[in-house]
Amino acid sequence: LKKRGYPIMNSAGRIRAMTDNHWRCHDDVLINVDPDGTIAKGCYVKNRGRINCDACGFTPVAEASGALDLIPESLYAGWRLFLKT
After folding, report:
1. Who contacts 35 (Cβ-Cβ below 8 Å, separation ≥6)?
2. Burial label, 79 (beta-carbon count in 10 A; 0-12, 13-18, 19+)
3. Helices of type H across the chain
4. Which one, of 3, 6, 12, lies nearest residue 63 by Cα?
5. How far apart are CA 52 and CA 34, in angstroms?
6. Which of 12, 14, 74, 75 has its C-alpha lying 20 to 30 A from 29's C-alpha?
7. What pLDDT score does 85 carry?
8. How far apart are CA 14 and CA 21, in angstroms?
9. pLDDT tens-place string over residues 27-84
């Protein structure tokens, strides 16, 4: 879809990494706030169900993890998001 011009903000490299399931997850960058105000740090599934990282489809974490690993394509994808008006 990205190659066809759809406005997908994730980098092609992180999409490939998720498809091939070979990326390092930095779930510690996530902060979750539930409707009742409960704040939890880390994976969304933690304390809610069985964690199956192989089936994870949360692309923002894959992109943020790539940026934390200093992958240039991920850094650029994040930079573009902040420059978009």
Report:
1. none
2. exposed
3. 12-20, 59-68, 72-83
4. 12
5. 21
6. 12
7. 54
8. 10
9. 888 888 889 998 988 888 877 888 888 888 888 889 999 999 999 999 999 898 888 7
- pTM of the shown model: 0.76
Measured in residues, the chain has a length of: 85
Unique residue bearing structure tokens 């992180």: 14
**Which residue is it, tokens 């706030």?**
33
Give 53-59's long-range contacts (Cβ < 8 A, gap of 24+): 53/25, 54/21, 56/18, 56/25, 57/18, 59/10, 59/14, 59/15, 59/18
Q: Where are the domains of the chain?
A: 12-83
* Residue whose C-alpha is closest to residue 55's, from 44, 66, 70: 44
